């Protein structure tokens, strides 16, 4: 699953942070925040799927392609992003760890249009939805009743907690 060029060129804004796709830049207010190119790419993927659970394998495949990379590389990149954004793994504001599975960007960002205008208002995700995960279902979200289960996945009430 490669990130389409359109996604890599998009810019996003949340709180006082702007992530510029084409410029490979992250800014907080009027100052640039230094992150590695791969960290920038991971952040773009998370922003483009804000509110959704994004699997570790999907991130590795999207950002690193078919090259063999150890999972610790992704751990290091997520830690770098958290430091850059002033986020805390234990009490996340932006990047939530879904243990053993992946990550979720917890704030709905605004897509920044080329003229600098924003396309979507910033709305924090419902904390109950962001915190509730069902370990027995695939990562991609399509079912509005359960963001961890695609619409095509069978519903098993006994498996819900």
Automatic annotation (TrEMBL):
Compositional bias per record (Basic and acidic residues), positions renumbered to this chain: 129-143
InterPro entries: OmpR/PhoB-type_DNA-bd, Sig_transdc_resp-reg_C-effctor, WH-like_DNA-bd_sf
Annotated stretches, region: Disordered: 114-161
Presence of keyword DNA-binding: yes
OmpR/PhoB-type domain: residues covered: 9-107
Residues in the DNA-binding region annotation: 9-107
Organism this protein belongs to: Noviluteimonas caseinilytica
Record's protein name: OmpR/PhoB-type domain-containing protein
Composition-biased stretches (Low complexity): 144-155
Keywords associated with the record: DNA-binding
PROSITE patterns: OMPR_PHOB
Pfam families: Trans_reg_C (PF00486)
